[in-house]
Design a protein that fits this description.
By secondary structure, the chain is of the alpha+beta class. The chain has one domain. About 10% of the residues lie in helices and about 30% in strands. It contains two helices and six strands, in the order αββββαββ. The longest helix is centred in the N-terminal third of the chain and has 4 residues. It starts with 10 loop residues before the first helix and ends with a strand.
Length: about 60
């Protein structure tokens, strides 16, 4: 979960290129119940650039 609303990323992290050389955003909007959104699915494209820690016990994901 990204909790810092001021987090910044460069285009090299959030843009991907398809087999035709076209660029596209590497995240997608997801529908969430009212009061919990808006939300974005970041996924592997972002995590591969950071050290990521998953904690099932605490139910959290942290990165550095």
């Amino acid at each position: 979960m990204v909790t810092d609303s001021n987090s910044k990323s460069s285009p090299q992290i959030y843009m991907v290129t398809d087999s035709n050389g076209n660029c596209d955003l590497a995240f997608m909007q997801i529908d969430l119940p009212e009061g919990y959104g808006p939300g974005m699915l970041l996924g592997e494209v972002f995590m591969r650039h950071y050290f990521t820690v998953f904690s099932r016990e605490k139910g959290e994901v942290r990165g550095k």
